[in-house]
Amino acid sequence: MDYETEAIRPRQVSTRSLDAFDRKILGVLVKDARLPYAEIGNLVGLSPPAVHDRVKKLREAGIIRGVHASVDGPAVGKPLLAYVHVDAEGWGKSQRMMRLQAFPEVEEMHSVAGDTCVVLKVRTADTHALEHLLLQIYILPGVKGTKSYIVLSTYLERPVQAEVTGTWPSVPMPDD
Amino acid sequence: MDYETEAIRPRQVSTRSLDAFDRKILGVLVKDARLPYAEIGNLVGLSPPAVHDRVKKLREAGIIRGVHASVDGPAVGKPLLAYVHVDAEGWGKSQRMMRLQAFPEVEEMHSVAGDTCVVLKVRTADTHALEHLLLQIYILPGVKGTKSYIVLSTYLERPVQAEVTGTWPSVPMPDD
DNA sequence: GGAAAGCACAGACTTTTGTTCTGCCAATAG
DNA sequence: CTATTGGCAGAACAAAAGTCTGTGCTTTCC
């Protein structure tokens, strides 16, 4: 199996500027990608072929990366969610760290700016499995330590939303 | 709009124990939920109606939560990904914090065990928008402070995987 | 300002897929 | 040993996806 050793980058910036219809379609598909084109058309105000055309172009432009089923973590035997901050000396992005992607428990891997190097999102069967995964991290060269944040309750977990907040609510400045 | 004020919980533990076919089907649907049932059937070794039946049951059992399009963050105008740790006095879960879910920039919200109370995953247009969002967090009652981890590069970002690591690689114990 | 070209949409059609039904087989319980 | 339940394959039907053509619009060039 091949591992992604390069960061996920925007494939092509795609001069295509999203208009209001595209935004609406994306908003619908993010919520439920199984709706028929006819129903999407009703929601956004277009005919089914028009929706089809736009979705096809959105896919070709890489704006829609794919369609995935969202499965319940506990139901598939992974009730324990955690974020693991990895501190490494030198530079965190070693090739060997990419091999962690082979574990289905690892869902995200980012290099970050802050008081740590890499943030991992991991979902394991139990604390024992998490320990095993931490062991796999510790044997990587350059890893100085990890800090784990065990999720107690998840209040929100959703995919990338198509909408963007245009005007933020004004906040009264503190009186100092 | 209503906000989820309760944590996402497993709807029903569903006595349904996943067999090998279910695991395979889930694995396929997580990768690409647009494959026809006939093709899934070829991959896992079942007929299209059998796959249909199982997927239907997996949906009814809540094991498949839904099907969502995955859109590219930068392409929809949100190239800046960050994790925000929120420190609050008392108890972080105030009703008003749930209102942050109204912002499409907020993708995840967890209460965690560790040296912080709440972890947010936010995706914004730029640092300016992130600052606006942080302002919205700071005006919440009880919020003492935040710590932001700006994502520099994303090496892996994928939905919940259906697979579970059965036997972990053995790691030689350090010689102390 | 006018004409031509490109784009996007709606309607009708074809093809593919989803969905349902029926019968059969195996496993289990009585 | 028999009856019953659950699940799967094959066939038939319904529905959606995908394609094609024409039309109206905007844009752009002359």
TrEMBL record, chains A, B:
<dbReference type="InterPro" id="IPR019885">
    <property type="entry name" value="Tscrpt_reg_HTH_AsnC-type_CS"/>
</dbReference>
<dbReference type="InterPro" id="IPR011008">
    <property type="entry name" value="Dimeric_a/b-barrel"/>
</dbReference>
<feature type="domain" description="HTH asnC-type">
    <location>
        <begin position="18"/>
        <end position="79"/>
    </location>
</feature>
<dbReference type="Pfam" id="PF01037">
    <property type="entry name" value="AsnC_trans_reg"/>
</dbReference>
<dbReference type="Pfam" id="PF13404">
    <property type="entry name" value="HTH_AsnC-type"/>
</dbReference>
<dbReference type="GO" id="GO:0043565">
    <property type="term" value="F:sequence-specific DNA binding"/>
</dbReference>
<dbReference type="InterPro" id="IPR011991">
    <property type="entry name" value="ArsR-like_HTH"/>
</dbReference>
<dbReference type="InterPro" id="IPR019888">
    <property type="entry name" value="Tscrpt_reg_AsnC-like"/>
</dbReference>
<keyword id="KW-0804">Transcription</keyword>
<dbReference type="GO" id="GO:0043200">
    <property type="term" value="P:response to amino acid"/>
</dbReference>
<dbReference type="InterPro" id="IPR019887">
    <property type="entry name" value="Tscrpt_reg_AsnC/Lrp_C"/>
</dbReference>
<keyword id="KW-0805">Transcription regulation</keyword>
<dbReference type="GO" id="GO:0005829">
    <property type="term" value="C:cytosol"/>
</dbReference>
<keyword id="KW-0238">DNA-binding</keyword>
<dbReference type="InterPro" id="IPR000485">
    <property type="entry name" value="AsnC-type_HTH_dom"/>
</dbReference>
<dbReference type="GO" id="GO:0006355">
    <property type="term" value="P:regulation of DNA-templated transcription"/>
</dbReference>
<dbReference type="InterPro" id="IPR036390">
    <property type="entry name" value="WH_DNA-bd_sf"/>
</dbReference>
<protein>
    <submittedName>
        <fullName>Lrp/AsnC family transcriptional regulator</fullName>
    </submittedName>
</protein>
<dbReference type="InterPro" id="IPR036388">
    <property type="entry name" value="WH-like_DNA-bd_sf"/>
</dbReference>
